[in-house]
Automatic annotation (TrEMBL):
Listed name of the protein: Switch-associated protein 70
Residue ranges that the Swiss-Prot or TrEMBL entry lists as coiled coil: 319-540
The encoding gene: Swap70
Keyword presence, S-adenosyl-L-methionine: no
Pfam family, one: EF-hand_SWAP70_N
Length: 589
């Protein structure tokens, strides 16, 4: 019953994780509703009575997720799975779970297998996957499944190709999910040269064996018990029963042969024109069957005998037993690998300890040798010191006397150099003051020129405004009637004369502006000369240990350049003058 619960949980896990749930910590209405719908469907297909109140009561407290200790899985175990008796259709149950999760997870890219084949691969994945979540199928089980499919297709197994795929898989992950396994089989990577029908038949055969526990199936003749006639039937051998149908579509079932440990099968001689006969003996009834050939006869006898032997021993079907053995072998190998890693770590730790001990011994030996060498060195040094003590003392006194004389001479020279440096710095200070005075005067001259240039520009702007006003008046005069033209002509002549006078004044202002610009250039050159002199003196002072602190002029504002040369006003003043000029122009218009 535990194995059945694990198989059911895998399919339910796929269905539950595919639901759109609110995982904010507390159970929301949408999550509760989705869980209730899933629970109702599960109870329907598993033939278990549904209790919606129990679900709401279970989720009354906070929830930590669908697979947590206080989530959906405890409710599933308590109220659904523990009530399952096994009297349900596994295919219908799996199809319901598949319907809930396939649309969300199935790849949108075209596959070489149908949706029905993808469903069967998904069910096979749940059978072969590991018992941990999220579910994956390990490379060993992938190899087992692909070998079964290749054998069912009648093709040769490409071990080298799978080894390359396994190496690439192991470098990135532990195994494949159900949807990755479907993509792998649907891509045709391991079924090249096979058509879709062949692949579908192979998937169906493996599905029947692993999921439906079909150990063998095929057409044979069965002798009737009443009319004693021979009729062809489709036989399906399972671990405890042989069912026979009208055809292989399994729609019209004609009967069952219940197998137990008391059953036996034996070959019969040919009779009544029938060949390849064998007899299945049960407690209450016997069945005579005729196979199509001797090979099929022997295969059926062997398969039935194997099934009866397993029933007597209470063993599971061969494929389930093989799966359990593979799982135990993997667990054993994993345990051996962990034990080997533990032993390696212990050996490594012991080796490191030994290395530390050897290093300690080596250091002790080196220290002992160093001490012995040091003692020998001290003994020799003591002898030398006793011999050279007096000579060293005399030599030391001579060196001290000579060093003192050198220090006295050096101090005298340094004093003389210091006095000379002070005199030089005083002279440099005087020259620096003169340079600063020159720079100050140059800045004053520059400011005077700037003011003059600003006044000229203001006058020039006023003249231009007046000229534009006169020009506008001339245009208005031209538009007057013919009767006023003569009088306006006289006024125009007068205004033209005034315009000429104004143009002459403008030219005079232009000449004055150029002269002011020349004066500004001369002042600028003087200022640059004074700045260079200041910088030269500053470098000299810094070179002589910075005994005098320089008084530097303030920073200059960036110059504005007009069409006639450098401007003597700032950018803000220029914008103000432009606004004033535009206002005058608008007023004149």
């Amino acid at each position: 019953m535990v194995g059945l619960k694990e198989e059911l949980l895998k399919s339910i896990w796929h269905a539950f994780t595919a639901l759109d749930l609110d995982r904010s910590g507390k159970v929301s209405k949408s999550q509760l509703k989705a869980s209730e719908v899933l629970s109702h469907n599960l109870c329907t297909v598993l033939n278990v009575p549904h209790d919606p109140v129990a679900l709401e009561e279970h989720f009354r407290d906070d929830d930590e997720g669908p697979v947590s200790n206080q989530g959906y899985m405890p409710y599933l175990n308590k109220f659904i799975l523990e009530k399952v008796q096994g009297n349900f259709d596994k295919v219908e149950f799996n199809r319901m779970c598949w319907t809930l999760c396939a649309k969300k997870n199935l790849s949108k890219s075209p596959l070489l297998i149908s949706d029905e084949d993808a469903f069967k691969v998904w069910v096979i994945f749940n059978f072969l996957s590991e018992d941990k979540y999220p579910l994956i199928i390990v490379p060993e089980e992938i190899e087992y499944l692909l070998k079964k499919l290749t054998e069912a297709m009648g093709a040769g197994w490409q071990q080298e190709q799978f080894d390359h795929y396994k190496i690439a898989l192991n470098t990135s992950r532990e195994g494949l999910s159900a949807w990755e396994l479907i993509d792998l089989i649907g891509s045709g990577q391991f079924s090249k040269g096979m058509d879709q029908q062949t692949v579908s038949m192979a998937i169906n055969e493996v599905f029947n064996e692993l999921i439906l526990d079909v150990l063998k199936q095929g057409y044979m003749l069965k002798k009737g018990h009443k009319r004693k006639n021979w009729t062809e039937r489709w036989f399906v051998l399972k671990p405890n029963i042989i069912s026979y149908y009208v055809s292989e579509d399994l729609k019209d079932k004609k009967g069952d042969i219940i197998l137990d440990g008391n059953c036996c099968v034996e070959a019969l001689p040919d009779k009544d024109g029938k060949k390849c006969l064998f007899l299945i003996k049960c407690l209450d009834k016997s069945f005579e069957i005729s196979a199509s050939d001797k090979k099929k006869k022997q295969e059926w006898i062997q398969a039935i005998q194997t099934t009866v032997t397993l029933l007597r021993a209470g063993s599971p079907p061969p494929h389930k037993e093989a799966r359990q053995k593979r799982k135990e072998l993997r667990q054993k190998l994993l345990a051996e690998q962990e034990e080997l890693e533990r032993q390696m770590k212990e050996l490594q730790t012991a080796n490191e300890n030994k290395q530390k001990e050897l290093e300690t011994v080596r250091k002790q030996l080196e220290a002992a040798a160093a001490r012995a060498a040091e003692e020998e060195k001290k003994r020799l040094q003591t002898q030398v010191e006793l011999q050279d003590r007096f000579s060293l003392e005399l030599e030391r006194e001579k060196m001290v006397r000579q060093k003192m004389e050198e220090q006295v001479a050096q101090k005298s020279s340094e004093l003389e150099q210091y006095l000379q440096r002070v005199r030089e710095l005083e002279e440099m200070y005087k020259q620096l003051q003169e340079a600063l005075e020159d720079e100050k005067q140059a800045r004053q001259d520059e400011e005077t020129v700037r003011k003059l240039q600003a006044r000229l520009l203001e006058e020039e702007s006023a003249k231009r405004a007046e000229l534009e006003k006169w020009h506008l008046q001339q245009q208005q005069t031209i538009q007057m009637t013919e009767a006023e033209k003569q009088e306006l002509e006289n006024q125009r002549m007068i205004k033209e004369q005034a315009l000429q006078v104004a143009m002459q004044q403008l030219e005079q202002l232009e000449l004055e502006r150029k002269e002011a610009l020349e004066q500004y250039e001369e002042v600028k050159k003087k200022l640059e000369t004074a700045a260079n002199n200041t910088k030269s003196w500053k470098d000299k002072v810094a070179h002589h240990e910075g005994l005098i602190r320089l008084i530097e002029p303030g920073s200059k504002n960036p110059h504005l350049i007009t069409n006639w040369g450098p401007a003597a006003f700032t950018e803000a003043e220029l914008e103000q003058r432009q606004k004033s000029w535009k206002g005058k122009k608008a007023t004149s218009e």
